[in-house]
Task: structure prediction
Amino acid sequence: MCDCIFCKIIKGDIPSYKIYEDEYVYSFLDIACDAEGHILVIPKKHCVNVLDCEPDYLAHVIQAVQKISNHLVDNCGYDGVNILNASGKAAQQSVFHLHFHIIPRKLDDGMDTWPLHDKLDLDLAEICKKLTLVK
Result:
């Protein structure tokens, strides 16, 4: 493991409030305390973000995200979850170790996690041509 804050948490050098752990994944409460039950899910193997994470390892991480999210809804009294990830500096990634945020939600909790922007005048056909993976 490298010398990043999340690697130090995995190694136990920095304390955390562990929620879930398996062979591939470590999950803990976000100390920002910006939402009740805000959880971070990280791979034990260091990678920067979804862009460089090995596909098989990424599959284990997202399976843990699903498992934890189901637990929050099925057993902890939440009505849903927001799952957030930022990959890359331009996407506002602040810790360069892959992580997913799980924010438990209750109906009418007053949180607004979706940014609102003015509608852009875009040519969707041109954008589709540019972004299509299979030609």
Observations:
- Residues 5-108 form a domain with the HIT family, subunit A fold (CATH 3.30.428.10).
- The first helix runs from residue 5 to 11.
